[in-house]
Amino acid sequence: VVGAHVDFNFTATDDQVMTCTLYGNFSGSWGPNKSVSNVQSGQETNISIDVGTGTYAWNVRCEDPFAGASFAPQNYTVTVDATPPVVTTMSPLNGSVLGNTFVFFKYNVSETYNVSSCSLYLNGTLNETDTTIQKDVEQSFNKTLDYGNYSWQVRCVDEFGNVGSSSEENITIEHSTLILVDVSTDQPSYEIKAIVPITTHTTDKYGYDLVTNVTTDVIHGVTQEQWWNTSWKKRKPIRLSNDLSQDRADVLVEVNVSGLGGAVSSCANEVRVVYQDGTSVQEVPVVVVAGDDSTWCQIRFFANVSANAVNEERYFMYYNNSGATNPGYTLSTTVSIFFDDMEVGGAADAGNWSESASLGVETWGLDSGVAR
Questions:
Q1: 8 A C-beta contact, residue 227 and residue 262
Q2: Which parts of the chain fold into alpha helices (H)?
Q3: Omega before 65 within 30 of 0, i.e. cis
Q4: Longest dimension (CA), the chain
Q5: Which class for 24: exposed (0-12), middle (13-18), buried (19 or more C-beta within 10 A)?
């Protein structure tokens, strides 16, 4: 029964005009509630009263002036629900600005009896209905929307047809390419061969969850060393190739690292280069030679490259630490690249010069016995 005004219907049979009284536990204890007179035999009659939400037992007692009185053979039960479900929106909150078009519309519904369905309304129009409702727990409608402004509301219906509505919330969905990543473990250190649970949480710039594909690199090293620090938020791999069939050591490499996306405010202060080969990890001296302190930095450092390497990935440039200071590295490029046995002098000695090193940045040659 819906509502607080309830009609109790009954039919009595007797050869006299009767007076009938509604009995029930409407006030908490069993007793008479309301009477009607001039009840005709064999005709359906109703007694109407106002009843609060709850489940009640009831019966009707009829009597005539001569034959006495009697109840119906058994009591009946009625459930009255005059209260609609209470629907509460949880997120996104009113006035939210989202950076992702995939939106979780989260809500909660409370109700004394069963909830038949809940529906999502976007901009005042029915969008989706869910009939598998659980009360008093967080639930959601998950939708992919276009960029723009939206109002959203959830309306729920209980088993008696009462409708409850949440407040109407307004949100804006904007285009955002920034992904904030938080990586954590449940403890700072582990025993060898222990299983390490790694949790990665991604949000947009407004702090709302994103659905993303994540690749997690597990780096072998000591996190207390200067370069490996949570203050450096990002890194880019530096891939080197070697077309010679022999290893090259201490080659002076100059690299333009681009695509930094405004995540560096000072190349000279923030850039660090780290070498790792699977067993060791170490920072290597680096010098910044150019850059726009925003999207690209041009750097130099000495590198080791394997024979016949193609895009060998052993060096990484770490950046995105506005609190970092210039490490003050310098690279010595004064190298003896030619030597002579000094046994013959002048131009005749030109053919006795031998190359001992190559800087990899400048090109040297012999011109009449002089290194140029």
A1: no
A2: 267-270
A3: no
A4: 154
A5: buried
Q: Are residues 255 and 290 in the same domain?
A: yes
Backbone angles phi, psi at 39, to 5 degrees: -75, 125
CA dist 161 and 108 (Å) reads: 18
At residue 195, the 3 state secondary structure works out as coil
Same domain, residue pair 225 and 308? yes
Among 48, 80, 112, the domain boundary falls at: 80
pLDDT digits (tens, 9 = 90+) for 262-317: 999 999 999 999 998 766 778 999 999 999 999 999 999 999 999 999 999 899 99
SS3 270: helix
| CA 110 – CA 135 distance, rounded (Å) | 5
Contact 81, 162 (CB under 8 A): yes
Whether the CB-CB separation of 344 and 279 falls below 8 Å is answered with no
pLDDT digits (tens, 9 = 90+) for 12-32: 998 887 899 999 999 899 999
Closest CA to 251 of 260, 238, 262, 261: 238
The answer, as to whether pTM is greater than 0.70, is no
Rounded Cα distance, 80 and 74, in Å: 20
Is residue 199 one of the residues assigned to a domain? Answer: no
Last residue of a domain, one of 154, 173, 192: 173
Q: What is the rounded CA–CA span in Å between residue 236 and residue 259?
A: 9
Residue 127 backbone dihedrals phi, psi, to 5 degrees = -110, -45
Q: Are strands 96-98 and 169-173 parallel, antiparallel or unpaired?
A: parallel
